[in-house]
Hints:
By secondary structure, the chain is mainly α. 64% of the residues lie in helices and 3% in strands. It is built from 26 helices and 5 strands. It has a 3-stranded mixed beta sheet with strand order 3-5-4, with helices on one face. Strands 1-2 form a two-stranded antiparallel ribbon.
Amino acid sequence: MKLTLITCAVFSTLALTGCNDNKTASTVESENKQNITSESKADNKAEKKSQKDISSLYSQATQALFKQRALEATMFGLSADDVGNEFKSQLADFSPKNEAKLREELASLSKKISTYKLTETTHTDIDNQQVMAGITQYFAGHKDFSIGYIDVWMGLSPFIVNQINGPLIDIPRIMQNDQPITSEQEALDYINRLGKFDQLIASIEEKLAFDTAQNWLPPKSTVTGALRYLKGFINTEPKSHVFVSNFTDKLETISDLTEQQKQQLTVQVIEKVTNVVYPAYQSITNATEQLLTKARNEAGVWAQPNGEAYYQEAIRQLGDSALTADEIHQLGLDEVTRISKEMDAILVSEGYKGGTVGARMIGLTDEERFLYDDSQAGRAQLLNDLNGYIDEITEKMAPVFQTKPSYQVEVRSFPVEIQDGAPGGQYSPPSVDGSKPGIYWINLRDMKANPTFSLKTLTYHEANPGHHWQASLNMDQTSLPFLRRIAPYNAYAEGWALYSEKVASELGLYENDPFGDLGRLQAELFRAVRLVVDTGMHHKRWTREQAISYMSDKTGSAESDVIAEIERYITWPGQALGYKLGMLKILSLREHAKAELGEQFDLSAFHDVVLLGGAVPMAVLERNVNNWVQSQLPR
Length: 635
């Protein structure tokens, strides 16, 4: 378009001057064409330089983060070139000084990216700049809060020692599930990492002391849960520890190592676990016991220094919302009322008429027909059924999903040592090269918490078309900057997963299955209740017990699940808001597109628009959907 406008201007000039100089019209036209070509080449060169320069900033952001988060680099299957140095035998340094350095570097990169002047921008260029500026700021945390640590999934996580995430839990888990041991060198990398646990945990203790000195004290339930995990992690003989058994299992698959070499390597692992890992975990356990004497009785983040401001920032970041806490609370109450009425209608139609919806749902979980056997065989059957649900939905959803991800998904139960603090289900992404699949984790600590009528919905949320489908398609977008391919925007990702549950219903997956549909509605009710209890504790100053009572009464979920959930929201202020807020936004965008396009609306094309741009802030998603709608309208 630029070239066409210049050419028109040239010809207009020629017509006006009448070529009154000594040059012929053909000579002038020839010279102008040369000028146009030179200008076009210069423009192209400038544009390419602009793209190269800003791409360099994107790469710097990736390296800044993963140089400090070596285990997450392992989880995603990155190379030394991706990270900018060798990291496979490295751990991390969470000391206050090092954390501050990481945050400052990312904040500086965010500013450089956001102020960079692009030339000849496409929609993708604009999205890349806006989203990358946002992601780097997300990982930089908030300038007013030096507490907590930077988590590659949720940005600023407020308590470095807790019951559900953090380096004390995540690093061992990544080493077990994601660190490959297919050669002698990789075995040595694993051993070297174990040998650095004393340094790792010393840095965590230093950060914990730094936060405590600022009167940033976690609630008692968070510390109690952390202690339960820490003590359980080192309650076996070192030679029987999961670090050892995991290592020896992987070692057995290396055919070019002799038995003597394997034995020698195993001896080294046991030595590191005995003399480095166990003493380090005992040290942080002692520090956490001391912390328990200072821990807060209050459940909400409002009780922390400047805690109300922290929560409003969490609403903005994790809820991706400009709503106030009071508005979100009321939205939750309204949604609880609406969904409860739908559940009541199904319960009544099935003969369950007495008591509240919650009480009737609790009664269902006592019925033997809805329960798996609390045994190894029962757990194996449950996992088998989940795989069947994945196969069924993947086939059914084909007509409304144009693009299929290249990565596979696998179902696993949570390791026993972390299941008490873990949620009912969770997803972790595949490695970049596909050598490790996406993993749908299911919590089997309490088989009564997994009634048959709830598991289809959980599977659609965690696997397909939920988290796995979305995260894998995001990972497949190789033209995007890497941090965009793993973008952790909470409202988008969790909103999409909850939206996926509704799509499954629309595809007929609950046809002739009223109890399955009841499970779907219970899951949606669970997310509506989250709006109420999260704002209740962190803004309205509810107690932990108030929140547990409300969730239990309204949802009828197993007590073990409710307690774990409420303690999760206590530890992660604002994270629970993303599900319902994100789902409602995606549904509103879909309804807007349908209203604008009428019979031209194509659900599969809409899903591509939402998914193939990767996880983004809701403002960017709205812009992308509106651009697509405009492109589909007749001209």
